Description:
Layout: E1 3-5, H1 8-16, E2 23-30, E3 36-39, E4 51-56, H2 66-73, H3 77-86, H4 91-102, H5 122-127, H6 136-153, H7 158-167, H8 169-174, H9 183-202
Parallel strand pairs: 1-3
Antiparallel strand pairs: 2-3, 2-4
Helix pairs in contact: 3-6, 4-9, 6-7, 7-9
Amino acid sequence: MQLRGALTVSVFMLSVMTTDVTLAAVYVFTDASGVTHFTNVPSDSRYAGMTRASYRISAYSPVKTSSGYLAASHRYAPLVQKAAREHSLDRALLQAMIAAESGFDPRAVSPKGAVGLMQLMPETARRYGVRNLYDPAENIQGGAKYVRDLMRKFNNDLSLTLAAYNAGEDAIVQYGNRIPPYRETLQYVPRVLTLYRQYKRDVR
Length: 204
């Protein structure tokens, strides 16, 4: 995974996840080697060209604390475990994505028309044979298949996979296999990675 960030990101992201009104900044840039860097404290000249993205939790569906996410995830744990096993994915990654995408609400619908636990767009659902977007098992399976394919396409680069899931595969290619400078995507990637670390810790 081509991803690096300042240690302060973990503390920063954990703090903003516990409130609906926090407004801070995540700075992101991709270096000449294609490594994507995240920090909220750009401390030296290397960060001069970084993109600043406002991070406001209230821009997403209502956010639970990490313990709330963990409690909500238990209901779908068997479905997540099954999909992770069948598609060679980390269960904690799927849990983190569901938490970020829908807050474990199977009836969630985004303004853009994404539906269900993994917020599948209708065309993506058709691509992976999902007939009922509101069905948790089908939605998780469709999302897991999509994540698997994105991982393969982007050489197991997790940051690019997450960016592609959020912004679309074409956007990654358009920007030279780098995270596109879309505000939502620049917020989404570190948010999922923070949740991923929490879930990996808690499932041990």
